[in-house]
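Lay summary

Proteins are chains of building blocks that fold into shapes. Our project writes down both the chain and a compact code for its shape. Here are two examples, one after the other.
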Amino acid sequence: MVRTVACILLSTMLFSCNLFNGKGSRSNDRGMIIPSKKSKNFSPERPVGMVAIPGGSFVMGQTDYDFAQQKNASPKTVSVSGFFMDDTEIRNSEYQEFVSYVRDSIVRQRLAERAYELGYDGTANAASGQGGISDFAFKAKDNATGEQSAYLQYVNEMADGRSGYESERQLNWDIPIIWDKYEYPDRDYVEVMEALYYPPKDRFNGERILDVRKLNFVFTEVDKNKAARATNSKRQDFVVTDTVNVYPDTTVWVRDFNYAYNDPLHEDYFWNEAYADYPVVGVTWSQAKGFCVFRTKKHQDYKRSRRKNNTENVIQYRLPTEVEWEYAARGGIQNAPYPWGGPYLTDSRGCYLANFKPKRGDYVEDCCAKSKKSGFIYTAPVKTFHPNGYGLYDMAGNVAEWTQSPYGTSSGEYTGTLNPYLGTGKDTDRKTVKGGSWKDVGYMLMVGNRDNEHKDSARSYIGFRTVQSIPEGADVRYNRTRQ
């Protein structure tokens, strides 16, 4: 017995020595705690189409004469961390990617569910895309090796409606969707696809159109405010699932103006190629939030596809807070009423500096900075006018923009001064809107001006842009600001 214990102790000592002399799985840390990774400068990837806004402090609020007696925009000094921001409002062409992704996801999801009902498990090799609905079964093979994945098989087996693994099943994106109704491969495929279109009784002139009411995007998030204040609760109590229809409301062009003939915009503004570089409108705050989730997912999926087992998370895209938006709109110029400084709405040549309503009944600007046209009656293509000191376009005029912050008439008075959210901590139904639009007078374009709208309302004059936080201490190259 003594010999057995001695052998065990000796083996333990030899094993320990092996671990700490550099020959085992650990480094030679001499029994001390040493960071596994050496510290180095972190340089976040600048997303395409975004500019870096340096952190700093500024006087928030109405620093010019308060013509409208808007006491909810009183001046206050605050500090803001750095962030990336879209240099333009989100275009129609960019939002179309979101709509197309949701459309294709729903089609593939329904095809996969039907294939699952028919007993197809995704283990068979897909043909050239003409093999029938079985080609669209939930995946059971690894993309890199082409071999069956034990995890995907487990997920598919556990997807019984009670385990919660239904959302973990992976759609097959390798096979193109067949859109031509005369090339549908089998009857099950026909039945699934026909259910996604308007029924014959709802069609005009026999035109077969996808039912946009079914283009719903489902995403989850954590209610951090609730989690921070709760005790002895389960994680699932703070997980919030949102469902939002992603198709923009094109009827806003008719609904917002009762006595104007805007039918052509209702028909063409979102999908016609002529409007590809125009800012998307008719989008609610909830839809803009859903777009941010989609943009994060798309970026994350790409990074993981490029490097297997990549666990690095993409910094989330989101809507800017009201304070972030106003700070960026000032372009590094303190106490300026407009993004270009001010106080005038025209440059030295008499050209208007933004897309807005310059005179009563006159929606056409006398001249535009970068266009041969004399002006725009409605919205203008992004980057038509000159950027501000941070390189941001249309921070005044064109379309007003959603912010993340709830709207309160006196929120600036009782909130903090460090990255203020300007909310009550509760998700109110009204959200702050900033920037003014093509239909507004010059006063609404002031950076300190505040407006609001119900978060589920869509307007022909409200769009949005997104931001991405920059970690403190990150190595980022910022653009010089105009002084």
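And here is the second example, written the same way.
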Amino acid sequence: MSVPCVAVERERGETVRERLADADLLDGDHRIAVEGGIIYIPVTDPSAVPVEFSDRLVERDAAERERPRTPADLLGYEPSLERLGDIVILDEDDDDRAREIADAVLASDLPCATVLNRASPIEGELRVRRWEVLAGNGTETVHREYGHEFALDVAEVYFSPRLATERHRVIEQVEPDESVVDMFAGVGPYAVPMAARGADVVACDLNEAAIAYLEENAERNGVADRVTAIAGDVRETADVYADTADRLVMNLPHSADEFLDTAVSLAGEECVIHYYDIQHEDDPFGPGERAIRDAAGDDYDVAVETERVVRSYAPHEYNVCLDVRLTRA
């Protein structure tokens, strides 16, 4: 059967395979093949292949791979699962059903060290939740995303793997030598890759555990020299970086508007703000744009470059992002 493949020299095969795996593009239904020093790696969506490999796309016959056993194969229904590193996360109110799914996860071929069930909603200023450990013995893991590794403990920090595509969209806009302030940095899923692209990043977070992981992750990914991690409220800790930022990340969608005065004070002569918000479907972008314009006042010209629905958040509500350029008036 003819399928799309990325064709690269054999010595580059593992590096490219890992890059495609990080982008969730590997076609698990077909086998990788090697011929004449070239390795052919089947992919699921050729249009999503990273640009550096787009000229290596070919169509090629590939043998079908025997499919591993999934939890759904064992259960007879498709459970709702989320994977974070080697943790599988459930969101089940029924204890018996949760344990049935956990047993199926462990009996399947799904790589997994721990199965957790959500035991509370996201709570408090630090936006963490409680967990029930159904299998395994911990809540710490290492998550891979677009070629970077992030150590974290889901019981101590907030992290959503569902936002990987959105993070990558923003990160791809960063140019070398930019000055970036990530105002709510968490364990570094924006800050670390931005630093890897050559930016100097100031990464702030109220959660001291998140900052400790961020520092570890900067070291882990070889960018510690480009990341300055600051624990505390960015409104109180980042004054020294006023008027310097070429780019600001404001991923605190429930209350980012409360930090816009600080964002404007951090902005340099020209600055792009990635502003995340949660709003009703009737006007998902208007409140954020108005809040940014009010904060900028007469000091900056404001141009909205992108309005993007990131995901559905609740009935009739969207998690959205506005990419907004401030230019000093």
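What can we say about the second shape? The chain has three domains: 2-61, 71-138, 161-328.
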